[in-house]
Amino acid sequence: MTNPLENPTANPFEIAREAAQLIAERTGVAKHDIALTLGSGWAKAADLIGETVASINAADIPGFSAPVVEGHVATIRSIALPNGKHALVLGARTHFYEGHGVRRVVHGVRTAAAAGASTMILTNGAGGIKTSWKPGTAVLISDHINLTAASPLEGATFIDLTDLYSKRLRDVARSVDAGLDEGVYVQFRGPHYETPAEVQMVKHFGGHLVGMSTALEAIAAREAGMEVLGFSLMTNLAAGIQDTPLSHAEVLGAGREAEGRISALLAEIITKL
Ligand code: 8IG
Fold first, then answer.
1. Ranges assigned E (strand) in 112-217
2. For residue 191, is the peptide bond before it cis, meaning its omega torsion is within 30 degrees of 0?
3. Mean of the per-residue pLDDT values for the chain?
4. Closest CA to 20 of 160, 147, 85, 116
5. What b/e readout covers 20-54, taking b as 16+ CB neighbours within 10 angstroms?
6. Is the full-model pTM beyond 0.90?
7. Partners of 187 in the beta sheet?
8. Closest C-alpha residue for ligand 1 atom 8
9. Ligand 1 atom 4: the closest Cα is on which residue?
10. Model confidence at 74: pLDDT above 70
C-alpha cells in the first residue's frame, strides 16, 4: 500500500487532519490532550498511565506505516488518564534512517497536534557521553543538536527553537524525581552508530546523548505550537566512551531492565501535567 505522504504534492497537514479525524472516530475520543511517542525502553508506560480506551493498528491510519525495529509496536492507543484528560500513545515511530523522508518521520507529531494535543512527550533510547550516567539512566532532554541536515519545515518557515524542551515541563518532571539529570540530545541520521571520533566531536561541542530520533519530531511539535517534554533512556555508553562494541542486543537488554522503573516515573510525571 502506498503512503499518501509519498505524494510530493500532498499537503502533510491535511493528511494529519484526516488521520486525527479517523483516530477520533475509532477511539470515540473527540480531543486528546497529551501525546506520547514511546521509544526503546519506554513502552510499558502506556500500561501505567491510565485506562486504555482503544488500540488501533497504526497501519490503518492515513500516513502511518508498520515499524521496522524490533521492540517497537505499531499501535496507536487512546488512554483515559485519572485526571480526566486523554493521552494518545503513538507506538509507530518512523525513523529518518528508514529513508521515507521527513514528512513520514513527523507525521505522528502532526497527527497528535491535529487531534488536539498541546503537550508532546518524546522518549527514546540513546547512547550516553557523560560517564557519570550508567546504562538504565533516564535523562531529561534540555536541548538538541540536529545533525541530520534535514528539517521538517518546508519553505520559509522560520520557527523559534528557544526553550524547545520546555523548562516548565522539565521542572514538573524534577518535582517528581529531583535526581533527574538533563542533557543535550544529538540526533544523527543513523542507522549506523557513531564512530568514537564522532562521539568526541559531539562531546566537544556540548552534546551529552546520541540517538537517531526526536530532534526532527521536536521541531515539528514546536511548529504545531505544542509544548515538548523529552526523555532519553541511556541504554549504552556512546562508542569509544565504552571500550566494547555497541550491540542492538545490549540496547534491548538495558531497555528491558530499566523499563518498569522509568515507565513508572513517566506515568507519575504525567499525573502532574
Ligand atoms: I538505544 O549510541 C541507542 N540509540 N546514534 N548512538 C545512536 N543511537 C543510539 C545509540 C547510540 N544508542
1. 119-128, 137-146, 181-187, 209-211
2. yes
3. 93
4. 116
5. bebbbebbebeebbbbbbbbbbbbbbbeebbebee
6. yes
7. 146, 211
8. 211
9. 126
10. yes
**CATH number of the domain within which 23 lies:** 3.40.50.1580
- Among 76-90, 154-168, 191-205, 251-265, name the one with the lowest average pLDDT: 251-265
CB of 125 shorter than 6 A to ligand 1: yes
Which grid coordinates are listed for 16? 494529519
Alpha carbons 19 and 31: distance in angstroms, whole number: 13
Tell me, yes or no, if 194 is annotated catalytic. Answer: yes
Rounded to whole angstroms, the Cα distance separating 139 from 133 reads 9
Judged against a pLDDT cut of 80, whether residue 219 lies above it is answered with: yes
Range(s) of the domain holding residue 255: 4-270
Q: Are 96 and 189 in contact (CB under 8 A)?
A: yes
As a whole number of angstroms, the distance between CA 251 and CA 72 comes to 13
Which ranges constitute the DSSP H helices of 209-247?
A: 215-223
Residue 251 predicted with pLDDT over 90: no
Q: Tell me: the pLDDT tens digits for 139-180?
A: 999 999 999 999 999 998 899 999 999 999 999 999 999 999
Q: Is the CB of 211 under 6 A from ligand 1?
A: yes
Question: Does the Cβ of 199 fall within 6 Å of ligand 1?
Answer: no
Count: domains in the chain = 1
Write down the catalytic residue from 182, 194, 223, 227. Answer: 194
Question: Under DSSP, is residue 200 helix (H, G, I), strand (E, B) or coil?
Answer: helix
What confidence tens digit (pLDDT) does each residue in 1-24 have?
579 998 989 999 999 999 999 999
Question: Which pLDDT belongs to residue 1?
Answer: 53
